């Protein structure tokens, strides 16, 4: 049974920082591209950042230069360091697989965790 657990969210003022963590049980990160996603009220879930098995990273334009994704496959954990937070960054943040599709072209995900809430006040 795959179980993703996100943590580290909280409430900060604009300009503040948070570090999110995502740990998996019943699932190995190694060999998988991992991503952080976020979902704000009334908006679709969107990809924030992704990291390949060799540490290559990609970021959505709206977080470039502010967020850093990293991974520790020994600990089966992926991190998201968020700096210079803006009110627009407020959302529930999730981690999951990234970059894999099934034969129908649909993205493949592990079961989603509960996410971790990030609130940013102006």
Please, could you describe this protein's structure?
The structure is a single chain. With 122 residues, the chain is mainly β. Helix content is 0%, strand content 47%. The protein contains no helices and ten strands. The chain has strands at residues 3-7, 10-13, 18-25, 34-39, 46-51, 57-59, 67-72, 77-82, 91-97, 116-121. The strands form two sheets. Strands 2-10-9-4-5-6 form a six-stranded mixed β-sheet, with no helix packed on it. Strands 1-3-8-7 form a four-stranded antiparallel β-sheet, with no helix packed on it. 30% of the residues are buried. The model has no long low-confidence stretch (mean pLDDT 94).
Short description:
This protein is globular. The chain contains no helices and ten strands. The protein has strands at 3-7, 10-13, 18-25, 34-39, 46-51, 57-59, 67-72, 77-82, 91-97, 116-121.
Q: What kind of sheet is the major sheet?
A: 6 strands, mixed
Average predicted confidence as pLDDT: 94
Strand content: over 45%
Distance between the termini: 40 Å
Q: What characteristic shape results from the CA principal axes?
A: globular
Return residue spans where pLDDT drops below 50 for at least 5 consecutive residues: none
Structural class: mainly beta
- Roughly what percent helix? under 10%
Order of helices and strands: EEEEEEEEEE
Strand order of the largest sheet: 2-10-9-4-5-6
Number of helical runs? 0
Cα gyration radius (Å): 14 Å
Count of beta strands = 10
Keywords:
single chain; 122 residues; mainly beta; six-stranded mixed beta sheet; four-stranded antiparallel beta sheet; globular
């Amino acid at each position: 049974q795959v179980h993703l657990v996100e943590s580290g969210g909280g409430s900060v003022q604009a300009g503040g920082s948070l570090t999110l963590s995502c740990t998996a049980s019943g699932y190995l990160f190694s060999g998988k591209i991992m991503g952080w996603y976020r979902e704000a009220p009334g908006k679709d879930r969107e990809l924030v950042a992704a990291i390949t098995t060799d540490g290559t990273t990609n970021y959505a334009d709206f977080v470039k230069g502010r967020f850093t994704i990293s991974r520790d496959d020994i600990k089966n954990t992926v991190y998201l360091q968020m700096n210079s937070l803006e009110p627009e960054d407020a959302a529930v943040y999730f981690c999951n697989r990234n970059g894999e599709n099934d034969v129908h072209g649909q993205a493949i995900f592990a079961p989603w965790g509960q996410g971790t809430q990030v609130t940013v006040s102006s």
